[in-house]
Design brief:
rod-shaped, 4 helices, Ribosomal protein S3 C-terminal domain, four-stranded antiparallel β-sheet, single chain, alpha+beta
């Protein structure tokens, strides 16, 4: 083998090796770029929001009124969705009392924790009986409880915004 052929073969191998190295560098650049750009999903936050929505709504519905004949919020909302015949000691009808109590509870908890939320009581979602808070602009975790009434089902839903 002559020296010229040997040099030519060596140059070809070096060029091939250089191309492989360049391709590896480009490939690693893309891999690193996409790994850094990938947003992490915060499962703990999602779980916490879902638990807050569920626990707050469950606790609210089971709580007893201070000045409305000792009735629970569920009983007041049942009346609210059916006949509106319960009047509390302060003169409020069941719907108004339940709304004002929810507002007080959520002001002292969710608002104090700086959590955005929407609380809604409705039989038909298009025309809610009352709404507190504001609709979530993006992601949310919701909990809905059905409450049977004499005139159909009343739903109460709490959305905790993410």
């Amino acid at each position: 083998m002559t020296m010229a052929k040997f040099r030519k073969k060596s140059q070809t191998e070096i060029i091939g090796l250089a191309i492989v190295v360049v391709l590896l560098v480009i490939g690693m650049t893309f891999v690193i770029r996409f790994m850094l750009a990938k947003e992490t999903v915060d499962y703990k936050k999602q779980f916490t929001q879902a638990e807050i929505a569920s626990n707050m709504l469950n606790t609210f519905l089971k709580s007893t009124s201070k000045d409305c004949n000792g009735l629970t919020m569920t009983e007041l909302l049942q009346d609210c969705g059916h006949s509106k015949s319960i009047f509390c000691q302060n003169g409020q009808v069941s719907c108004d009392y339940a709304r004002d109590t929810a507002k007080e509870v959520f002001n002292k908890t969710l608002d104090a924790w700086s959590l955005d939320y929407e609380f809604k009581a409705f039989q038909q979602e298009e025309s809610p009986i009352f709404t507190l808070g504001s609709p979530c602009p993006a992601s949310k975790k919701s909990k809905t409880f059905p409450i049977p009434t004499g005139s159909g089902t009343l739903f109460v839903r709490l959305d905790v915004c993410g």
